[in-house]
Amino acid sequence: MRKAKFNVLIFSPFKRLFVRQREEQEHIVDFNSVLKGCCSGDLKAQEDLCKQYYGYVMSIALRFSSCHDNALEIANDSFLKIFRKIGSYQIDKEFKAWIRKIVVNTAIDYYRKDKKNSVEISIEAAYNETVDEDVNNNLSAEEIINLINSMPVKYRYIFNLFEIEGYSHDEIALQLGITESNSRANLTRAKKMLPKMILINSRYERVV
Question: Whose CB has fewer CB within 10 Å in the chain, the N or C terminal residue?
Answer without folding.
Answer: N
